[in-house]
Design a protein that fits this description.
Elements: H1 5-12, H2 17-27, H3 31-37, E1 39-46, E2 52-58, H4 78-90, E3 94-95, E4 100-102, E5 105-116, E6 119-129, H5 138-156, E7 179-182, E8 188-191, H6 193-201, H7 213-218, H8 231-235, E9 242-246, E10 251-261, E11 264-274, H9 276-315, H10 321-345, E12 350-352, H11 353-368, E13 375-381, E14 385-387, H12 388-409, E15 415-424, E16 431-438, H13 454-465, E17 470-474, E18 480-487
Parallel strand pairs: 13-15
Antiparallel strand pairs: 1-2, 1-6, 3-5, 4-5, 5-6, 7-8, 7-11, 9-10, 10-11, 12-14, 15-16, 16-18, 17-18
Helix pairs in contact: 1-2, 3-5, 9-10, 10-11, 10-12, 11-12, 12-13
GO molecular function: ATP binding; protein histidine kinase activity
Organism: Nostocoides jenkinsii Ben 74
Keywords: ATP-binding, Kinase, Nucleotide-binding, Phosphoprotein, Transferase
Length: 496
């Protein structure tokens, strides 16, 4: 069964887009029903050739599963097919007369029609392992009663609620995290032990059951900052929505699922999860990220100060080798400062190296260009994101090579500086291939990298550190091409 869930339904069934969307909505939220029911759920749809086919399966997190193997893709036959057809005909939940023996376990099977607008889009079967059902307690009885409400809402098209968010990006509450059952007035009829613990973590010390849930929560939120405007409708269960409560002593994620009958609200389920530790860790990470960015910012400032001091020192020297050496040192320090500046603006230890190259290339070319001999430049391909360790070395390599091309090859003649980059992904580290070509004066006679100046020696050493190779070639019809490769560290380990 290749393709997405929606694509398969469009290909294998005659369902319209509205029904397909409804089934997708159901599958994004049916873990709730599986957990309340202590049962496996299987979604069946009628194919174009008249077969009932399983297209979805979810297991409970609150109890023992029934199907150890996924049954998606199988067709219903025999009594099970008859059960599905009977659910469609009657428009409500139906149950097989006697439990089914499955792998020496007694399993109760029920079928619930899934109504989407004016048609039955599919059928959900509920498979309960009778041999592992816990001894009925207040908790289990409450779960079963709430599951019964959802089953009836599913059969009448009142659940799942369209447009309702199913959870947070992190910390989404589930049934096992904590559940509160409210009456139509928002009074707590029942709360699981985990839910009570979560409420007490916020700072509430009194009773919860029998109290108005919104008043309980809002009573511990005095002077804790702005309140989410959606919180009230979540805590009263008036709408299917989610929110988060933060107090000085803790934080909880809450989500409401209204319970309706004939489209009239008769109560609500509120799922609640204590996310205090999760939010504390997130806060610590954000603080560490901010500290690291501040360090990069200060390093950049310090490097710029060093560059300014070197520049002042160079001005005191007469023209000659000493002054040129200090100018080159200023440029190298500035190249490293650009990398630290980029790191100070990001949220991880990686650098958008295309931005670094553009800035270095623009800075060098503008200094070297004269009105008599203009230098044009262009960049092709992409360097991509690079880890900080590699970015420092690459920045120095690119600065040296661009400076050499602009200063020595093109200053007297002008021309075009062309930078090209190609990156290939590999399991042991991406391979970056870079070429810097000009149409200037070409390589000096007898040029040998090992015998060249300090800048060339720095480049050769840094390329070797990046597990790459470098070579200088004649560019046709004139000029020079420098080509080098580098094996980059994996970005996946940047956060380790």
């Amino acid at each position: 069964m290749a393709g997405t869930f929606g694509d398969r339904l469009r290909t294998e069934t005659t369902l319209g887009e509205a029904s397909i969307h409804w089934l997708q909505l159901l599958m994004s939220d049916w873990q709730l029903l599986a957990d309340l029911s202590y049962a496996d759920l299987v979604l069946w749809v009628l194919t174009r050739d008249g077969r009932w086919r399983a297209v979805g399966h979810v297991r409970p997190t609150t109890g023992q599963m029934v199907f150890f193997e996924d049954i998606v893709g199988r067709d219903a036959v025999g009594d099970r097919r008859g059960l599905l057809e009977r659910a469609v005909a009657e428009g409500s939940m139906v149950r097989r007369g006697a439990p089914v023996l499955d792998q020496d376990q007694a399993v109760r099977e029920e079928a619930i029609p899934v109504r989407a607008g004016g048609e039955v889009a599919g059928v959900v079967t509920r498979h309960t392992n009778l041999s592992t059902i816990p001894t009925p307690s207040r908790l289990e009885l409450s779960y079963q009663a709430l599951a019964g409400h959802l089953v009836r809402m599913l059969a009448t098209g009142e659940w799942p609620q369209s447009g309702a968010p199913t959870g947070f990006r992190r910390g989404a509450p589930r049934v096992s995290d904590g559940l509160v059952h409210l009456n139509p007035d928002g009074v707590v009829l029942y709360a699981t032990p985990n839910a009570l613990s979560a409420v007490h973590r916020l700072g509430h010390t009194g009773d919860v059951i029998g109290e108005v849930f919104a008043q309980v929560i809002l009573g511990v939120m005095n002077d804790t900052g702005p309140v989410d405007e959606s919180l009230a409708i979540v805590l009263t269960g008036r709408a299917a929505w989610r929110s988060e409560v933060q107090t000085r002593s803790g934080a909880v994620a809450v989500r409401a699922i209204p319970i309706t009958e004939n489209n009239n609200r008769i109560g609500a389920i509120v799922l609640i999860r204590d996310v205090s530790d999760l939010r504390r860790r997130e806060s610590e990470l954000l603080s560490k990220d901010a500290t690291i960015r501040e360090i990069h910012h200060r390093v950049k400032n310090n490097l710029q100060t060093v560059a300014a001091l070197l520049r002042l020192q160079a001005r005191r020297l007469p023209d000659g080798a000493g002054r040129d050496a200090l100018a080159e040192a200023v440029r190298r320090v500035s190249a490293i400062a650009v990398v630290h500046e980029t790191l100070s603006l990001g949220f991880d230890e990686t650098v958008d190296f295309d931005d670094v190259v553009r800035r270095s290339q623009r800075m060098v070319v503008e200094v070297a260009t004269t009105s008599e001999q203009p230098i044009a430049s262009e960049v092709h391909g992409t360097f991509g994101r690079v880890r900080a360790e590699d970015a420092m070395a690459l920045a120095l390599i690119m600065s040296e090579l661009i400076q050499n091309a602009a200063e020595h090859a093109l200053r007297e003649t002008g021309g075009l500086l062309r930078i090209s980059a190609h990156r290939e992904h590999a399991p042991e580290g991406d391979v970056l291939e870079v070429s810097i070509c000009d149409d200037g004066t070409g390589l000096p006679s007898g040029f040998r990298p090992s015998m060249a100046g300090l800048g060339t020696q720095i480049v050769v050493s840094l390329v070797s550190d990046l597990r790459g190779v470098i070579r200088w070639e004649e560019n046709h019809p004139r000029g020079t091409c420098v080509r080098f490769s580098a094996r980059l560290r994996s970005l996946d380990s940047a956060d380790e």
